[in-house]
Amino acid sequence: MPTKTITGTAMLLAVALVAQSLRIFFPFIPNQVSMFLIGSIVSASLVLATWRYGVKNGLIIAWLTPFVAYMQGMLPMAPFIPIVAIGSTLYVWMVKYWQHRSRLGLVFCSSVIRAAALYTGFLLFFQSFQVPQKLMTAILFSMGWPQLITAILGIVIALLIESRMRS
Q: Which of 75, 91, 86, 78 is nearest to 139 (CA)?
């Protein structure tokens, strides 16, 4: 693997992990604000890694970020790691598939599939295991339409960065 690819992927992973750490560094940021800010930055990192360095590199970030989120206490249960990673994996595959196709398809299909996968994954988990109602409600909410918004914003940010890098 070329040094440029390793370095670029590592830098984008670092951006995603620093973004996830914003809740720790700035605990006064309201949850709703941090959810959209952090989610959008992590999504943009996934998209940029995938477009610039390939699916495998996007998947590295897709699988490491939920693990670190769990270690930081952002994901309250270890079984949540693969659910988030699978949702991000589908997002990576979709943004790669739509990269040179329709922008509308890129934004709509990639974002809807990610949000649907996350919501469905958590819903199935909660139907299979006993989880406190308050936790279930909060997580299902955050894995619904907010994931759609952060996925869309991640693509928009990545498109803006890509266009600036080309000029």
A: 75
Both tokens assigned to 82: 């693969």
Q: How many Cα atoms occupy the beta-carbon half-sphere of 154 within 13 Å?
A: 37
Cα distance between residue 13 and residue 18, in whole Å? 9
Task: Using CA atoms of 4, 10, 16, 22 in order, give the dihedral in degrees to the nearest 10.
Answer: -120
pTM, to two decimals: 0.93
Distance CA 117, CA 125 (A): 12
Q: In the structure encoding, which two tokens stand for residue 7, read together?
A: 């370095």
Give residue-wise pLDDT tens across range 55-70: 999 999 999 999 999 9
